[in-house]
Target: DNA-binding FadR family transcriptional regulator
Amino acid sequence: MTLEPVRRPALSAEVIDRIRARIASGEWPVGTRIPPEPELMRQLQVARGTVREAVRALAHTGLLEVRRGDGTYVRATSELSGAVARLYGDSGLGQLLEVREALDAQAARLAAVRAGDAELGELAAALERRAAAWHAGDFEAWVAADWDFHAGVATASGNPLLAELYRNLAEPLRSAMTESWATPGFQGADPVGHETLLAALRSRDADGAARQAGANVADTRAWDERR
Model:
């Protein structure tokens, strides 16, 4: 039986891989305007149609956003985060928190068993940055530190798939938190639940860590439903 010859992938697929690699590496961060068509054509040594086909495909997956008359911008760091952002849309904070409640609880349960001393130290440092940023009125720094803590728990779970799923919630979460900041009554600064969670992780209390992680998100979800 004769095998079919291996054929060279379509040129647009190679361009897609090159652009995706720039985004994944952080060379083109989220919100960055990518080079215009002529520059991409020059750098990649391909025709305009090939560039347009690749950009169109990446826009469809959610990695890029084409703004007519303005340019093309990086929308997400991966196809998964792009899909999350697209599906999340304008549906509100509640749906995102429902998903996070499940992920946070499982991540905390695993982290209580698997987290090393270095990871626990990083979580403590994130909470310190979080508190300092809140008192300084630096909301962007507060969101970054808050996310570092939660993503750090996911990483400490020792489950790479869970951690990757969690990281892909980053952009929709940041957008939701920015909206929440502008709403009177937002109590995101309360450190008690996060400190209690860290204490449970340090004492290797898996059930307690899972309960507290779920409670932290449930409290935010209840506040979102009341506003």
In short: The beta strands are 64-67, 71-74.
